[in-house]
């Protein structure tokens, strides 16, 4: 008997919601020639910075069927992540003594949460149709997830390069399930809805969005605080403000995020008061504090040294106070060369403003 693939597609979307995803759509494995052209131009411009893995797989990033042979469809899924109890991002950014951490990183590591749910979805599909070829991805392999999601009609690529939806804005994670099943394809959206708006370009603190749909990662605060292993360029440090892990500005000022929906996922609830902790408080953490408190979070992967590096920059940009100066001075003697460079810079900023350690 011929299987009803349309019915299965409907079941998959229903199972996805039962597993905590907010939406699921099915797209073709062919992402289109324009995606490859865009990737090539972005890499040629050097916009990927030190993220060599972006170029390592060549065009496999844009060709799911080459990355995972046999792939016929890409099931794209999204899950909202903004925790409802978190302190207002705008309030934290306005408080120079507070440490701003991107809202996606306040709870459990999303890689683990989504990967577990995707595996369960794959198992449900297998229970229904028998063994299938599949592979799950959560921002951890050469997958152009926004392009795949856009192809599946899950939303449209905004000018900040993130996926946008009219109903949920952009505060959500994406995950993919590559499959060899001949599922019916959902059509892409008929149009994007950014129009003439350039709010995300205008508000980017470092002007990393160099043109609509183009981000120079070398200037992006998320790249500088998470991906960059060495020193943050001195000319960009003042522009980071108190952003010590990631940056949400392009999302915070996007008009579509008036419709963003908070998460109901308990795993994304705020941990360790990270939604409004002070820079001084976090800078005082020992390495063991860092390991104990941030285990199981996305922040854990940058390691203690980069954590201190980022906080030192935040403290350099903070209002001068005895507590801030004392915090910086307390780590000068035992800091690694990388951290000490940023502490020295931070102290110099305060000295230029007339502050004194005396």
UniProtKB/TrEMBL annotation:
<feature type="binding site">
    <location>
        <position position="174"/>
    </location>
    <ligand>
        <name>cob(II)alamin</name>
    </ligand>
</feature>
<keyword id="KW-0846">Cobalamin</keyword>
<keyword id="KW-0479">Metal-binding</keyword>
<dbReference type="Pfam" id="PF13484">
    <property type="entry name" value="Fer4_16"/>
</dbReference>
<keyword id="KW-0004">4Fe-4S</keyword>
<dbReference type="InterPro" id="IPR004453">
    <property type="entry name" value="QueG"/>
</dbReference>
<keyword id="KW-0671">Queuosine biosynthesis</keyword>
<comment type="similarity">
    <text>Belongs to the QueG family.</text>
</comment>
<feature type="binding site">
    <location>
        <position position="194"/>
    </location>
    <ligand>
        <name>[4Fe-4S] cluster 1</name>
    </ligand>
</feature>
<comment type="function">
    <text>Catalyzes the conversion of epoxyqueuosine (oQ) to queuosine (Q), which is a hypermodified base found in the wobble positions of tRNA(Asp), tRNA(Asn), tRNA(His) and tRNA(Tyr).</text>
</comment>
<dbReference type="InterPro" id="IPR017900">
    <property type="entry name" value="4Fe4S_Fe_S_CS"/>
</dbReference>
<dbReference type="GO" id="GO:0051539">
    <property type="term" value="F:4 iron, 4 sulfur cluster binding"/>
</dbReference>
<dbReference type="GO" id="GO:0031419">
    <property type="term" value="F:cobalamin binding"/>
</dbReference>
<keyword id="KW-0963">Cytoplasm</keyword>
<dbReference type="GO" id="GO:0008616">
    <property type="term" value="P:tRNA queuosine(34) biosynthetic process"/>
</dbReference>
<dbReference type="GO" id="GO:0046872">
    <property type="term" value="F:metal ion binding"/>
</dbReference>
<dbReference type="InterPro" id="IPR013542">
    <property type="entry name" value="QueG_DUF1730"/>
</dbReference>
<dbReference type="Pfam" id="PF08331">
    <property type="entry name" value="QueG_DUF1730"/>
</dbReference>
<feature type="binding site">
    <location>
        <position position="229"/>
    </location>
    <ligand>
        <name>tRNA</name>
    </ligand>
</feature>
<feature type="binding site">
    <location>
        <begin position="247"/>
        <end position="248"/>
    </location>
    <ligand>
        <name>cob(II)alamin</name>
    </ligand>
</feature>
<keyword id="KW-0170">Cobalt</keyword>
<feature type="active site" description="Proton donor">
    <location>
        <position position="139"/>
    </location>
</feature>
<feature type="binding site">
    <location>
        <position position="200"/>
    </location>
    <ligand>
        <name>[4Fe-4S] cluster 1</name>
    </ligand>
</feature>
<feature type="binding site">
    <location>
        <position position="61"/>
    </location>
    <ligand>
        <name>cob(II)alamin</name>
    </ligand>
</feature>
<keyword id="KW-0560">Oxidoreductase</keyword>
<feature type="binding site">
    <location>
        <position position="197"/>
    </location>
    <ligand>
        <name>[4Fe-4S] cluster 1</name>
    </ligand>
</feature>
<feature type="binding site">
    <location>
        <position position="222"/>
    </location>
    <ligand>
        <name>cob(II)alamin</name>
    </ligand>
</feature>
<comment type="pathway">
    <text>tRNA modification; tRNA-queuosine biosynthesis.</text>
</comment>
<comment type="subunit">
    <text>Monomer.</text>
</comment>
<feature type="binding site">
    <location>
        <position position="139"/>
    </location>
    <ligand>
        <name>cob(II)alamin</name>
    </ligand>
</feature>
<keyword id="KW-0411">Iron-sulfur</keyword>
<feature type="binding site">
    <location>
        <position position="204"/>
    </location>
    <ligand>
        <name>[4Fe-4S] cluster 2</name>
    </ligand>
</feature>
<feature type="binding site">
    <location>
        <position position="220"/>
    </location>
    <ligand>
        <name>[4Fe-4S] cluster 2</name>
    </ligand>
</feature>
<feature type="binding site">
    <location>
        <position position="163"/>
    </location>
    <ligand>
        <name>cob(II)alamin</name>
    </ligand>
</feature>
<feature type="binding site">
    <location>
        <position position="250"/>
    </location>
    <ligand>
        <name>[4Fe-4S] cluster 2</name>
    </ligand>
</feature>
<feature type="binding site">
    <location>
        <position position="247"/>
    </location>
    <ligand>
        <name>[4Fe-4S] cluster 2</name>
    </ligand>
</feature>
<protein>
    <recommendedName>
        <fullName>Epoxyqueuosine reductase</fullName>
        <ecNumber>1.17.99.6</ecNumber>
    </recommendedName>
</protein>
<dbReference type="GO" id="GO:0005737">
    <property type="term" value="C:cytoplasm"/>
</dbReference>
<dbReference type="InterPro" id="IPR017896">
    <property type="entry name" value="4Fe4S_Fe-S-bd"/>
</dbReference>
<feature type="domain" description="4Fe-4S ferredoxin-type">
    <location>
        <begin position="185"/>
        <end position="214"/>
    </location>
</feature>
<keyword id="KW-0408">Iron</keyword>
<dbReference type="GO" id="GO:0052693">
    <property type="term" value="F:epoxyqueuosine reductase activity"/>
</dbReference>
């Amino acid at each position: 008997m011929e299987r009803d693939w349309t019915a299965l597609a409907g079941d998959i979307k229903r199972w996805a919601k039962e597993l905590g995803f907010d939406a699921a759509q099915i797209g073709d494995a062919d992402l289109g020639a324009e995606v490859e052209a865009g990737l090539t131009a972005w890499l040629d411009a050097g916009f990927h910075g030190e993220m060599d893995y972006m170029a390592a797989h060549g065009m496999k990033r844009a060709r799911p069927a080459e990355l995972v042979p046999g792939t016929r469809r890409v099931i794209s899924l999204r899950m909202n992540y903004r925790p409802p109890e978190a302190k207002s991002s705008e309030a934290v950014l306005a408080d120079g003594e507070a440490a701003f951490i991107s809202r996606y990183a306040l709870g459990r590591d999303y890689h683990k949460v989504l990967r577990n749910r995707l595996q369960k979805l794959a198992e449900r599909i297998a229970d229904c149709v028998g063994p299938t070829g599949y592979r799950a991805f959560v921002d951890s392999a050469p997958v152009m997830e926004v392009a795949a999601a856009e192809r599946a009609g899950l939303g449209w690529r905004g000018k900040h390069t993130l996926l946008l939806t009219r109903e949920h804005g952009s505060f959500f994670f994406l995950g993919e399930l590559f499959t060899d099943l001949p599922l019916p394809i959902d059509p892409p959206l008929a149009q994007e809805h950014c129009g003439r708006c350039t709010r995300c370009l205008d508000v980017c603190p470092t002007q990393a969005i160099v043109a609509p749909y183009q981000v120079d990662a070398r200037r992006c605060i998320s790249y500088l605080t998470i991906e960059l292993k060495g020193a943050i360029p001195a000319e960009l440090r003042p522009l980071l403000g108190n952003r010590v892990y990631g940056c949400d500005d392009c999302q915070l000022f996007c008009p579509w995020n008036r419709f963003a929906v908070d998460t109901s996922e308990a795993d994304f609830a705020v941990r360790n008061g990270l939604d409004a902790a002070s820079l001084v408080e976090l800078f005082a953490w020992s390495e063991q504090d860092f390991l104990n408190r941030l285990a199981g979070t996305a922040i854990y992967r940058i390691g203690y040294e980069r954590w201190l590096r980022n906080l030192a920059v935040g403290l350099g940009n903070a209002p001068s106070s005895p507590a801030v100066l004392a915090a910086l001075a307390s780590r000068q003697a035992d800091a690694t060369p990388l951290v000490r460079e940023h502490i020295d810079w931070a102290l110099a900023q305060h000295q230029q403003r007339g502050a004194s350690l005396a």
